[in-house]
Design goal:
Elements (H helix, E strand, L loop, with lengths): L1 H27 L25 H19 L5 H27 L7 H19 L14 E3 L3 E5 L1 H23 L5 H22 L16 H22 L8 H18 L6 H4 L1 H20 L9 H7 L4 H30 L1
Antiparallel strand pairs: 1-2
Helix pairs in contact: 1-2, 1-7, 2-3, 2-7, 2-8, 3-4, 3-7, 3-8, 4-5, 5-8, 5-10, 6-7, 6-8, 6-12, 7-8
Length: 352
Amino acid sequence: MRAILLAAGIALVLTLLGTPAVIRLLVKHEYGQLIRDDGPTTHHTKHGTPTMGGAVIIIATVVSYIVAKLVTWRPPSASALLVLFLTTGLGLVGFLDDFIKIRKQRSLGLRAKTKFAGQTVIALAFAVLALQFPDSRGLSPASSSLSFIRDTGLVLGPVLFLVWAFFLIAAMSNGVNLTDGLDGLAIGASVMIFGAYLLIGVWQFGQSCEMNPNAQCYEVRDPLDLAVVAAALMGACFGFLWWNASPAKIFMGDTGSLALGGALAGLAITSRTEMLLALLGGLFFLITMSVILQVGFFKLTGKRLFRMAPLQHHFELAGWGEVTIVIRFWIIAGLCVALGLAVFYAEWVASS
C-alpha cells in the first residue's frame, strides 16, 4: 500500500511542478498546436499552444513507479512492466505524430497507414508477451479467455486473443484521442478511470486466490502492482490537469492520448476486466460511437447526423460553452465509472 501512495504522490508532484518547465521549453522552440480549419472557430485562439505534453505524463508515471519500487524494495511485476511498455510504446507513436505536425506545420502528422502500423506492432507485441511469464501458480499477465469482471468460460485461444487485444487497445487509444478535443476533457475522464482501476487492483489483491482462497476469489497475476501503476497514472494525470484545464497552457497531444488509451486497455487486459472497460470508459465509447454514426449516416444519406463529430464539437456548434461541455461530460464520465464499480462489486456480492 505504501508503494501506491508513493507512486501517486511522486507522479502528481512531477507533473504539477515539471509541466511549467516543459511549457517554457516548448514555447522557446515554438512547438505549438496547429488547429484544423474546419473545426469550431473558437478553437483558433488555441493556435500555438504548446503540445506533446503527454510526454510529461509518461515520464512521471514511469519514474514514480520505479521510485516506489526502489523505496519499498519490491521487484517489479511482469504485468506492471507490460502495461508501462504499452503506455510508453503508444506514446512514442503519438510523439512522432505530434512532432511531424509541428515540423511540417500541418494538422496531420504520420500517414494513417504508418500510424496504424505503429499501433499494431506495439499492441501485438504487448499481447504476445502478456501470455508469457507464468508465475508459480501458472498465471500469466493476460489470459486467452474473454473476461468481464473475471475470466469467462469463453476461451478465445492465442490467435483470437491477439485479435481481441489489438481491437481493445486500438479502440481505447483512438477513443481517448477523439475525446481530447477540449481543454481538460480527456485527461479529467482518465483520472476517474485510473482511480477506479486503483480500487479494483487493491480489492482483487485482498480477495485474490493466493491471499484469500474461496469460491469468489480473483485469479489475477499481479493485482497490487497493477494498482501501483494505476495510482502513478492517476497522479500524473491529476498534476497535468492543473495546466491542461481551461484555458489550457499545454495540450497532451497524441503523445498523451494514445498512451493513456493504451494504459487503460492494458490495465483491463491484465486485471481480467476487459469488457468492464466499456462501462468504466463509457464516455470514450460514447464519443467514438458518435464518429462512427456520423460517418455511417453520411454515407447512407449524404446528410450529417450531428453538426460535427466527435460529439463534443456538436455541442460547441450548438452554442454550449467549452467549460460547460467539459464539466457535463465529466459528470457523464463519473457516472460511467460509478456504474462500472457498482457492477464490479455487485458481481462479487452475488457470487458470495
